[in-house]
Amino acid sequence: MKITVVGAGNVGATLAQRLIEKDFADIVLVDVIEGIPQGKALDMRQSANVIGFTHQITGSNSYETTAGSDIVVVTAGIARKPGMSRDELVGINARIVREVIEKSIALSPHAVFVIVSNPVDAMTYLALKVSKLPRNRVFGLSGVLDGGRLAAFIAEELAVNAPEVTPCVMGEHGSSMVVYPRFTIVGGKPLSELVDEAKQKALAERTVNGGAEIVAIMKTSSAFYAPSASVAHMVTAVATDSGAMMNCAACLEGEYGLSDVVIGVPVKLGRAGIRKIIELPLNAEELAALKRSAEAVSKTIAALPK
Q1: 173 is catalytic
Q2: Structure pTM?
Q3: End-to-end CA distance of the chain
Q4: Which one is predicted more confidently, 78 or 253?
């Protein structure tokens, strides 16, 4: 198996490290900056003796080395800078993602594409349209990361281990994401039965601002350990054809009464990408919140350059 990671920044490089250490595929790390992917890949190769992996990791500035990839992960893009509007960020990253998809699909027409570039819901939608692939083969990072953040905060609040939490975060990977306490399970019980509504709201708000909280603390960097771990979890499900259920940014075609929009929903992942989109039995209030979140994503999609 061959996996390409486009973008050798903190998220992409850490993801490449996580994947090569799993030792189930050869990894190609691609970036436009000369020397960065080559140097990072060389550094990782020099850990093979210690870690014990046998697959190869290669760094390159050329897409030719990605030919025949089974999975392509797109982390390329820029972070929003001070004074930059959201539409400006969308425009810049849309151009980057479009180029990445066009070059990658030409060389790896049978690949599954996992989108990480922000705003990820809109970028996943763009990648789907540019690639012209069926929707099962193009999806994005969303609820795995947001759910991981929620699980960490719940673990801290309730003095449990994070793996005891099965989180449920849907909708936009952004300010309108929706945390569902009724479907978030802690030690076999719904979060809605374990904490009051005020605490549920506080946990949800901290989850929504989870990335910003890290930026505020670090000041010169954004999150990459949890994002890379989340993407590695998604890629592993595809590579091993596990059928594992997790929340990912997927294009809806009637599910939850929504169409032609990408939002985070529960899916089962396997070798062909999304095996199935799971429709939870949301009540009227929960469904209305999801639709409001989808409307926010639709506005971002509308801002994509034509």
Answers
A1: yes
A2: 0.96
A3: 35
A4: 253
